[in-house]
Amino acid sequence: MKPVTTSRPPILLIEDTLSLQMVYRSILTTAGYRVVTASNAAEGLQQFLLVRPQLVLMDLILPDRDGIALIRDMLAFQPDTEVIAITANGSINRAVEAMQAGARDFLVKPFDKSRLIGAVQTLTAERQPRATGVAAASDVSDVSGFIGSSAAMQQVIETINSVAKSMATVFITGESGTGKELCALAVHANSARASGPFIALNCGAIPQDLLESEVFGHMKGSFTGAISDKPGAATAADGGTLFLDEICEMAPALQTKLLRFLQTSTVQPVGATRPRKVNVRIVSATNRDPAEAVRAGQFREDLYYRLFVVPIHMPPLRERGRDVIEIAEAALQRFALEEGRSFDGLDTGVKEVLSALPWPGNVRQLLNVMRNVVVLNPGGLVTPGMLPRGLADAANSPALPGFEPDPRPATPNAIPVGLTLAEAERQLIEATLSLHGGSVPKAARILDVSPSTLYRKIEGWKASI
User: From 342's CA, which of 39, 71, 91, 283 has a CA 20 to 30 Å away?
Assistant: First the structure.
């Protein structure tokens, strides 16, 4: 379904409290803005894909999904969207997380009319390029959300166009940072289900004892802590697409239930006596070799064949040739627009450095490098000296962290005596993540812990800052 086009894209308001939704909409409408509303994350993503708003105003606490995860999904599909996060008083940490995820501003409840209008006016005014030499974001990215003219990426786009209209399950493989979730979003957005919800679930980021509840939901009182009924991701995705990332990290017992779900299209929440029918398309992804996981007994063979109907492999950046330069130039324009600076492109030396690097973190790592360039330099032609320190010297390195290496020791044997156990543990985890391009699942396998354990520790470190 094609997006609605108007001379002035609307504002998307996502607020689950109906009374507040009506108040905010009335204020914005009176101020001359066209407003589209949604009451939950699924409906919000549906409207986002339909109308392609210029600005999203959204509460971070939504009944069916974490608001910060929704921000990441929207910006992955349409990076130039302006987002204003709404958070409750006393939840400033959540607002900070939202800004780190890509939100441009936040409002703390309760806020007055002038604060709301002021925030919206500031960001909508910034939609015009603020410096010469910077292209509008709509000129940067094609409609599929992918950048790159390499044969490998053209094959990916052709496969997406072919499979999107079907009901076939799609299995996306590729290294961390190659854009697997963006690929899943493109499959959803180009399908007949584009008006339905897109629900993403990271199977490696959720503790195994909670994963069944997250996927299939639970009934009030079904276990300790189940204080209310909760629809799972499969139910929330009814009529749309369920994206299961890091599928090979799913526990064997849950793999059995997922296989039954695929065979019957029914969901039975934990504690429920009756199943219910849902209409969901499954797209799954992993950064591991799924066939190897099957041979190792970590992934059910029958589930593998059920999911592996149409495979799409996202190629690593080092195999995409000139795409590295195209992505870097597009990112430079987009980040310059966001920061209000003027850059004149990349000089020949920078292009040579970027083309020579192995990029273990793939597109995610390249975007981080370009963001670093824009933030730390005033503008002009990007030269090798403007790249992150040590990057140019690492062009022939087999393992590139992407920024100046952490001055702290990178191996356990080099950790100095005098650290607490918690400090030593953090250094070991961070060093392992760095060696594996920031991939939590890879680091977890090396450290022999579950990915969810690492995710919890990382979130704990962020909260303590």
Answer: 71
Record: fold of 412-463:
Arc Repressor Mutant, subunit A (1.10.10)
In CATH terms, the fold of domain 11-127 is Rossmann fold (3.40.50)
> Which band of pLDDT confidence, cut at 50, 70 and 90, is reported for residue 133?
very low
Asked, colleague to colleague, whether 11-127 and 151-314 share their fold, the answer is yes
List Cα–Cα distances, 314 to 11, 56, 148, 156, in angstroms. Answer: 33, 29, 12, 7
The set of residues, in sequence order, having a beta carbon less than 8 Å from that of 98 and lying 6+ positions away, is 60, 67, 68, 71, 83, 85, 87, 106
With bands split at pLDDT 50, 70 and 90, how would you rate the model's confidence at 64?
Answer: confident
Check whether 408 has a pLDDT greater than 50. Answer: no
Paired sense of beta strands 198-202 and 241-245, if any: parallel
Buried b (16+ CB within 10 A) or exposed e, 182-200: bbbbbbbbbbebbebbbbb
Q: How far apart are the C-alpha atoms of 342 and 135, rounded to whole Å?
A: 10
Which class does domain 151-314 fall in? alpha beta
Q: CATH topology for 319-394?
A: Helicase, Ruva Protein; domain 3 (1.10.8)
β-partners of residue 198 are: 241
Please report which confidence band the pLDDT of residue 91 belongs to, taking 50, 70 and 90 as the band edges: low
d(CA 287, CA 296): 16
Tokens of 176: 């961390």
CA dihedral of 442, 216, 59, 374, whole degrees rounded to 10: 20
* Cα 193 to Cα 239: distance, rounded to the nearest angstrom: 7
Euclidean distance between CA atoms 265 and 281, whole angstroms: 10
The domain locations on the chain are: 11-127, 151-314, 319-394, 412-463
Check residue 315 and give its pLDDT.
93
Residue 398 reports pLDDT greater than 60: no
d(CA 427, CA 440): 15
Q: Are 73 and 41 in contact (CB under 8 A)?
A: no
Token pair 């504002």: residue? 11
Q: 356 CB contacts (<8 Å, ≥6 apart)?
A: 395, 396
